[in-house]
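Long-time lurker. I teach an intro course on protein structure, and each term I like to show students one example going from raw sequence to a predicted 3D structure in token notation. This year I'd like something fresh instead of my usual example. Would anyone be willing to generate the tokens for the chain below so I can use it in lecture? Attribution to the forum is fine with me.
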Amino acid sequence: MARRRILLSVTGYDPKLWKELLSTEHDVVTQPDGEAIDYAVVWKHPHGALDGLRGLKAIFSLGAGVDHILADPGLPDVPIARIVADNLTQHMVEYMTWRVLDHHRNGMTYRANQAQKIWREPPQPVAGEISVGIMGLGQLGRACASAFLPLGFKVNGWTRTPRPMEGVTTFHGESGLRDFLAATDILVVLLPHTPATEGIIDHALLRGLRRENRLGGAILINGGRGKLQKEADILQALEDGTLKEASLDVFQQEPLPQQSPLWTHPRVFVTPHSAATSDPVHLAPLMLEQIARDQRGEALQNLVDRKEGY
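-- Reply from a regular --
Happy to contribute to a lecture. Here you go:
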């Protein structure tokens, strides 16, 4: 098929390998050059980078999230596709399984005890006594639920609209949120960032989690989007006993500012938005296939609904 011109506009990633892989089939530029551009591949692109691009047919996100694209006030009216890949899903499943098991098996307590040379075994419930609640049962959420179930955890799921899943107790909508939280010991957040979900992880929501449990308190794990959470509320919840511990991979501002108290809080585990890293070796071929589909006149996959925000 004919070579096309791609604008690669990324922040936070080294574009070198992406450019090398995409250039095997198409011509890639990293800055608008006044010539026609057929496709844009972006991650947190500078606002305005897509303005007035002649010939633009579609925009592809380098990751599962697209809020960074939708936030551009000058966004062209062309289809937007997000990445859905086994590689990304597997990374997220590994991360969430690691964090759930670490909290379940008292990882923070043991690390603190080791630092102080304390030989003490805390109470250890079995997985069947613990409920993991997943906010968001899209591809990532369902894959994580499928990993938690064989470990013996009780698994709940909450979505805006009904999304039943075998083996999972599901809740939906505002009416189901209270019951979902009340039945959850470890909260896993995998929602997309939309106007409806911005700031949803606040003190009022965290207060709804089940604190009287075999873990000795409620746990928060956010691997979704940073703007879902209010970090001041999370810190308040940790101080007043609403939360026992938290693992956070995403933040309201990234990189997480050096002065943030989350860095040094003894009951917070911080990772640098690395739960499901976009690997160009695995993902660039998916984008090339999307372009090939478009050239063949076939529909693009994993298109974003702009009204829904994902």
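Some talking points for your students: The radius of gyration is 21 Å. Residues 108 and 266 are 8 Å apart (CA to CA).
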